[in-house]
């Protein structure tokens, strides 16, 4: 099976948790896209009814509109029944790194108010420690004096060999701009970042930081699709 096929299997499994009448957080990324597609299909077939979706990005909003999924927002629905979204890393305690797709702020706002948050991944996303994949830990920051904020982020984690890099768009080198008109600084760690809660607090204390991509203690269910089948883990 290809990685895309595994993502689709995990996504379809998650949609089995969706019931008619639910208000749903709609995730962002290549895995969540399959879940949104499936929800649209079940609505069209009449197998699901009265669903309202709250999208976590402009991209997901466009996809949901194209599929005819009725949409709303947190102003009208401050508590959601269920959210389904992918992740970039998942540790054994269901803590996540998210935001390599750039939508971490809206994802955290939406998924933080869901009664159930189902994370869907292929097995390549499983790690022992967050930041352990050697890939980016995203932080959304305001554009104002972004270099200053990036340097402060890097020095917070000097002991972990952290390198902070502004995310840019392809070859033109322009900063990547989020749906909220902010920038993203990606943190790369050479060593374990240690206490995640302490790291989260330290990042959020910096003026200039909007939000980071560590989703600690938020996921309630993890669905992993791998070569040997699908596993569902509840917290
Ligand atoms: O950017 C994000 O937060 C995405 O949800 C990411 O965490 C997962 O994206 P993927 O399904 O394309 O790997």
Automatic annotation (TrEMBL):
GO BP of this protein: pentose-phosphate shunt, non-oxidative branch
Cellular component per GO, a single term: cytoplasm
Listed EC numbers: 5.3.1.6
Protein name, UniProt field: ribose-5-phosphate isomerase
Catalytic activity: aldehydo-D-ribose 5-phosphate = D-ribulose 5-phosphate
Transmembrane segments: none
Summary of the function given for this chain in its UniProt record: Catalyzes the reversible conversion of ribose-5-phosphate to ribulose 5-phosphate.
Keyword terms: Acetylation, Isomerase, Phosphoprotein
Family: Belongs to the ribose 5-phosphate isomerase family.
Pfam families, sorted: Rib_5-P_isom_A
Gene3D superfamilies hit by this protein: 3.30.70.260, 3.40.50.1360
């Amino acid at each position: 099976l290809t990685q895309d096929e595994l993502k689709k299997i995990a996504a379809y499994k998650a949609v089995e948790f969706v019931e008619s009448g639910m208000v749903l957080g709609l995730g962002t990324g290549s895995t969540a896209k399959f879940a949104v597609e499936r929800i649209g299909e079940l609505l069209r077939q009449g197998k699901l009814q009265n669903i309202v979706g709250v999208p976590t990005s402009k991209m997901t909003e466009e996809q949901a509109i194209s599929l005819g999924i009725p949409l709303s927002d947190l102003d009208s629905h401050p508590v959601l029944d269920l959210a389904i979204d992918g992740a970039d890393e998942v540790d054994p305690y269901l803590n996540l790194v998210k935001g390599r797709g750039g939508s971490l702020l809206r994802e955290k706002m939406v998924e933080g108010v869901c009664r159930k948050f189902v994370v869907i991944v292929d097995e390549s996303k499983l790690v022992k420690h967050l930041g352990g994949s050697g890939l980016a830990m995203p932080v959304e920051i305001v554009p104002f004096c972004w270099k200053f904020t990036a340097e402060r982020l890097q020095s917070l984690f000097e002991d972990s060999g952290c390198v902070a890099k502004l995310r840019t768009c392809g070859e033109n080198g322009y900063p990547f701009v989020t749906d909220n008109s902010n920038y993203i600084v990606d943190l790369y760690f050479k060593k374990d970042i240690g206490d995640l809660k302490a790291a989260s607090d330290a990042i959020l204390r910096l003026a200039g930081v909007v939000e980071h991509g560590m989703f600690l203690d938020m996921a309630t269910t993890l669905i992993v699709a791998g070569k040997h089948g699908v596993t569902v883990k509840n917290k």
